Inverse folding.
C-alpha cells in the first residue's frame, strides 16, 4: 500500500467517528499543551527571579550583623544586632582586594509626612557609593554627596513611588520638604524608576546620609548592612572570603562558626534561586507529563475498541490481499496521526496559554523550540507506543475467524 | 487450473476435541469452468472454499493452483495469491464501510500498488462488466441495496483478473428475483469473459445455474456431474 493510500484510509477511519476521535485527541492536546505551558512558565519564573536578583546590583556581597543562619531559620537578631561599624566598612574598603565600592546602610521603616499626606516606607541612610553598588540612578537632582554625609545634612533623595504617594503622580518634588519622624528634610533628588516590588522596593525608598540616620533615627553608631561591590563576578567569592576573615579578626572571634555577622554572595543567591526554580519546572513538567501518559492510554483504549469493532473489516481486507504488514501499518499510522494532530493542537494551545499568562502580566514566559520539538517527539512516540499493541493485534487476526466474527 | 488431491482438514479445539471437516477430497477444475459445490449446512463447503481461496491451508493433501503447490505457503505468500489469483464474493459483509463503490473495487489493486489511473480504469470496467450503473460509482457502500452490494463484490472479484472467482452463498441474503439477477451476472461473466467460477450453495436450484455440480456431504464428495439443461 502506498503512503497516500494509507493516509486516505486513516483519514476516512478517523473521520467516521468524529466525536470519539476528538475526545481521544483532547487527551493528547491537554497533555502536550500543559507540558509546553508549564515548562514555559517555569522557565519564565526562573529568568524573572534571576533578573530581579541581578537588578539589585552587580557582583554584590552583602554583610549584615548577627549570626549566620540557614534559609528559613529563625531570624533572631539578624539585622538588629549591633556589631557592624563604619570602621569595619572602612577596613573592608582599604584592605580587601578587588573591591569596587563599599556602601554603608542604616535603614528603618518610618512614617513620612509631606503637606497633608503621609506614607510609611523604608528610609535608607547611606553614602554616595550606594548608587553604584545598587545601580540607583537619579532622574532629577543629585544623589547623597560626601559633604552631605560629612555634615550629616538633613537632605533626602526619594524614589518615584514615594514621590507619587507624597506629592502626587509626576509632581516636581526637588526643593520641597518632607518630615521623617517629625524632622524636616529637604528633597535634593528623585531616583529613576527601577521596577520591582515587595518589602524593599527601591522605587518606594527614601535615601538620606547614613550619618544623619545614625544621629536622628537610630541614635547609635552602628550599621544595618554593608554592601560591597566586587570589581567583577569572578572575584565575588574571594571578596566574600576576605571580608569574612577580616571581620573575624577585627571582631576578635575565635570560633568562625560563631561569627557575629554574616555575608551573602549574590551569585550564591542566584544559584540557589535557579536550583529552586529548576526543581519547580521539573515538577510542573512531570505533573503535565502524567496527563500526557493518561492521554496515551486513552489512545490505546480507543485503538483497541476500533480493532474489535473492525474485526470483520480486517478479515475482508486480508481476504482481498492485505498482508500483516499492511494492516499493522494502517492501524499504527492511525494512532500516530491522532497523537500528532493532538500534538500540533496542544502546541498551539500551550503556546497560547503561555502567551496569555505573559499578556496578563502574571509572568514572563518563554516557549522554547526545544520544548516544542520535545512535545512533537513525545506525541509521535506515544502514538507508536500506545498504538503498537492494538495494531499488532489487528494484524494477527486470522482472516477466517475475522470474517466469521459476529 | 485447480487440482485438489486428497485434501483433509481437521479442526482441533483442545487435545481430545478434534473434528475432521474434510475427509479426503479430490477434484479438478479447468479454466473457464462454472462449477457449483453443493451440500447441506455443516457439510464442509466453507471449509473447502477457505482452502481453495488460500485463506487457510489443508491438514494434508496437495492443492495445485495453476500448477503451483500452495498448500504449504506462508501467510504473506498466501496473501499475495489471494490478491493476484482469487476473487471472493461472500454471503455478507462484502464491502468496506466508509468507502465508495469505486474504491471498494480497487482495493486488490491498491494492495498490489497499481497506479491510480490504471486501477480506476480497471475498476470501472469491472463494475460495468458486473452490471453496475455508473451513477452509483461514487456512492458510499452503505447506500446500496443487497443486489447492488453483491454486484460490487463481483466487480471487485473480477478486477485483478483472477484464476477463479469463489462465491460462498452469494445469494443467501437476497430475495429470489435479485438472486436470479446476481446468478445471471456470474453466468454472463463465465460465458462472455471466460471466467472460472466456483459457486458454493446449499440450494439445488442455485447449483443448476452452473455447468457442473460437486455434491459434498460430511466432508466427502458424493457426486461430481455435469448439469443437464
Ligand atoms: N474453526 C472451526 N473450528 C472447529 N470446527 C469448525 C470450524 N469451522 C468449521 N467447523 C466445523 O466444520 C464443519 C463444516 O463447516 P463448514 O465448512 O462451515 O460447513 P458449511 O459451510 O458446509 O456449512 C461444521 O461442523 C463446523 O462446525
Ligand atoms: Mg458455509
Amino acid at each position: 500500500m502506498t503512503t497516500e493510500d494509507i493516509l486516505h484510509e486513516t483519514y476516512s477511519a478517523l473521520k467516521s467517528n468524529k466525536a470519539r476521535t476528538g475526545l481521544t485527541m483532547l487527551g493528547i492536546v491537554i497533555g502536550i499543551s500543559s507540558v509546553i505551558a508549564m515548562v514555559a512558565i517555569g522557565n519564565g519564573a526562573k529568568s524573572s527571579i534571576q533578573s530581579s536578583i541581578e537588578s539589585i546590583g552587580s557582583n554584590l556581597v552583602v554583610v549584615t550583623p548577627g549570626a549566620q543562619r540557614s534559609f528559613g531559620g529563625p531570624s533572631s537578631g539578624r539585622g538588629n544586632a549591633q556589631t557592624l561599624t563604619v570602621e569595619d566598612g572602612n577596613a573592608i574598603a582599604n584592605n580587601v582586594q578587588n573591591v569596587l565600592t563599599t556602601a554603608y546602610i542604616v535603614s528603618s521603616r518610618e512614617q513620612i509626612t509631606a503637606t497633608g499626606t503621609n506614607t510609611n516606607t523604608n528610609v535608607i541612610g547611606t553614602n554616595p557609593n550606594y548608587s553604584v553598588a545598587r545601580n540607583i540612578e537619579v532622574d532629577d537632582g543629585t544623589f547623597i554627596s560626601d559633604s552631605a554625609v560629612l555634615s550629616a545634612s538633613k537632605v533626602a533623595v526619594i524614589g518615584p513611588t514615594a514621590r507619587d504617594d507624597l506629592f502626587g503622580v509626576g509632581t516636581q518634588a526637588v526643593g520641597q520638604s518632607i518630615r521623617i519622624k517629625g524632622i524636616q528634610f529637604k528633597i535634593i533628588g528623585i531616583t529613576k524608576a527601577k521596577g520591582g516590588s515587595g518589602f524593599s522596593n527601591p522605587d518606594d525608598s527614601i535615601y538620606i546620609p547614613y550619618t544623619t540616620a545614625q544621629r536622628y533615627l537610630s541614635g547609635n553608631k552602628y550599621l544595618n548592612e554593608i554592601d560591597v561591590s566586587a570589581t567583577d563576578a569572578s572575584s565575588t567569592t574571594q571578596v566574600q572570603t576576605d571580608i569574612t576573615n577580616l571581620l573575624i579578626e577585627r571582631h576578635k572571634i575565635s570560633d568562625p562558626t560563631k561569627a557575629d555577622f554574616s555575608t551573602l554572595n549574590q551569585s550564591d543567591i542566584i544559584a540557589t534561586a535557579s536550583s529552586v526554580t529548576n526543581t519547580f519546572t521539573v515538577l510542573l513538567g512531570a505533573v503535565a507529563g502524567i496527563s500526557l501518559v493518561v492521554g496515551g492510554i486513552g489512545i490505546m483504549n480507543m485503538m483497541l475498541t476500533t480493532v474489535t469493532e473492525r474485526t470483520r473489516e480486517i478479515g475482508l481486507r486480508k481476504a482481498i490481499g492485505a498482508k500483516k504488514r499492511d494492516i499493522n501499518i494502517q492501524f499504527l499510522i492511525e494512532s500516530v496521526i491522532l497523537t500528532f494532530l493532538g500534538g500540533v493542537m496542544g502546541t498551539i494551545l500551550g503556546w497560547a496559554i503561555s502567551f496569555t499568562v505573559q499578556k496578563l502580566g502574571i509572568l514572563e514566559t518563554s516557549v522554547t523550540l526545544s520544548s516544542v520539538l520535545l512535545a512533537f517527539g513525545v506525541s509521535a512516540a506515544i502514538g507508536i507506543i500506545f498504538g503498537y499493541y492494538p495494531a499488532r493485534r489487528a494484524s494477527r487476526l486470522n482472516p477466517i475467524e475475522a470474517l466469521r466474527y459476529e | 487450473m485447480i487440482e485438489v488431491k486428497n485434501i483433509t482438514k481437521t479442526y482441533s479445539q483442545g487435545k481430545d476435541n478434534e473434528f475432521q471437516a474434510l475427509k479426503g477430497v479430490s477434484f479438478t477444475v479447468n479454466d473457464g469452468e462454472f462449477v457449483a459445490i453443493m451440500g447441506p449446512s455443516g457439510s464442509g463447503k466453507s471449509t473447502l472454499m477457505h482452502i481453495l481461496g488460500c485463506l487457510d491451508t489443508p491438514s494434508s493433501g496437495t492443492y495445485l493452483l495453476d500448477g503451483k503447490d500452495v498448500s504449504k505457503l506462508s501467510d504473506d505468500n498466501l496473501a499475495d495469491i489471494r490478491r493476484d489469483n482469487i476473487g471472493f464474493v461472500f454471503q455478507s459483509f462484502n464491502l468496506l464501510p466508509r468507502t465508495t463503490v469505486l474504491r471498494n473495487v480497487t482495493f486488490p489493486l491498491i494492495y498490489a500498488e497499481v497506479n491510480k489511473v490504471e486501477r480506476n480504469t480497471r475498476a470501472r470496467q469491472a463494475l460495468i462488466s458486473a452490471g453496475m450503473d455508473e451513477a452509483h460509482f461514487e456512492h458510499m457502500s452503505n447506500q446500496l441495496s443487497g443486489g447492488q452490494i453483491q454486484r460490487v463484490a463481483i466487480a471487485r472479484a473480477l478486477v485483478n483478473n483472477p484464476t477463479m472467482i469463489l462465491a460462498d452463498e452469494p445469494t443467501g441474503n437476497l430475495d429470489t428475483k435479485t438472486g436470479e439477477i446476481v446468478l445471471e451476472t456470474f453466468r454472463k461473466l463465465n460465458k462472455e469473459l471466460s471466467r472460472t467460477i466456483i459457486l458454493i450453495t446449499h440450494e439445488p436450484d442455485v447449483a443448476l445455474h452452473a455447468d457442473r455440480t460437486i455434491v459434498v456431504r460430511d466432508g466427502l464428495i458424493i457426486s461430481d456431474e455435469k448439469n443437464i439443461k
Chain B has a mean pLDDT of 93.
